[in-house]
Amino acid sequence: MASKGQQTGMRAVHLVAAELVGQGFIVSPTSRNAFGADLLITNESCSRAFSVQVKANSRPASFWLLGEK
After folding, report:
1. How far is CA 16 from its chain centroid?
2. Is residue 13 part of a domain?
3. Domain for residue 42, yes or no?
4. Among positive and negative, which fits the CA dihedral 7, 12, 18, 24?
5. 62 in a domain, yes or no?
């Protein structure tokens, strides 16, 4: 059984994926142990591709976690 933290993380990944699909992107979640990317995203014409790493916290935060990349 997945821990509460894992469940929170996967919930966040699916919520972000749903929002991006609603914006017109094609989205594919990666496996849970994939390095660096939680979502692989492309536009409708497949001319641009993106990888997104989703960070989640079960408690509200007043800041954004951003790295150099």
Report:
1. 5
2. yes
3. yes
4. negative
5. no
| 41 within domain boundaries | yes
What is the pLDDT, as a whole number, of residue 15? 95
pLDDT in tens, the chain (69 residues): 678 878 888 899 999 999 999 999 999 999 877 788 999 999 999 999 999 999 888 888 788 777 776
Contact 46, 28 (CB under 8 A): no
Provide the domain count of the chain: 1
pLDDT at 69: 65
Note down the domain range covering 37. Answer: 4-52
- In angstroms, what CA-CA distances link 58 with 14, 23, 37, 38, 61? 15, 25, 20, 18, 9
Residues 6+ apart with CB under 8 A from 8: 56, 57, 58
